[in-house]
Design goal:
The protein is of the alpha+beta class. The protein has one domain (2-77): Translation Initiation Factor IF3. The protein has 2 helices and 4 strands. The chain has helices at residues 20-31, 47-58; strands spanning 9-12, 37-42, 61-67, 72-77. Strands 1-2-4-3 form a 4-stranded mixed β-sheet, covered by helices on one side. It is globular.
Length: 79
């Protein structure tokens, strides 16, 4: 699915430590329209668990998490 998945907004937080990537995502989600797909690129391992937990609490949808060689792409759709 990741090959066909297109993000409306890409947040490149690679190299940032926790909680930076999550805070970057939250900031972008706040200004995005409903239905917007955001892609968070992060090299912080903690984001792989922190982001899905926040997404569930906030009521958004975790679309997919893709692991690359040295980072992850986490796709979130704003409710």
């Amino acid at each position: 699915m990741s090959e066909q998945l297109t993000a409306d907004v890409t947040i490149d937080a690679r190299g940032a430590g926790c909680p930076g990537p999550l805070m970057d995502l939250i900031g972008k989600v706040k200004t995005a329209d409903s239905g917007t797909v955001l892609k968070l690129q992060t090299s912080d391992r903690g984001s792989v668990t922190d982001v899905p937990e926040w997404v569930e609490k906030a009521g958004h949808e975790l679309v997919e998490t893709v692991e690359h060689d040295d980072y992850w792409s986490i796709y979130v759709q704003k409710a």
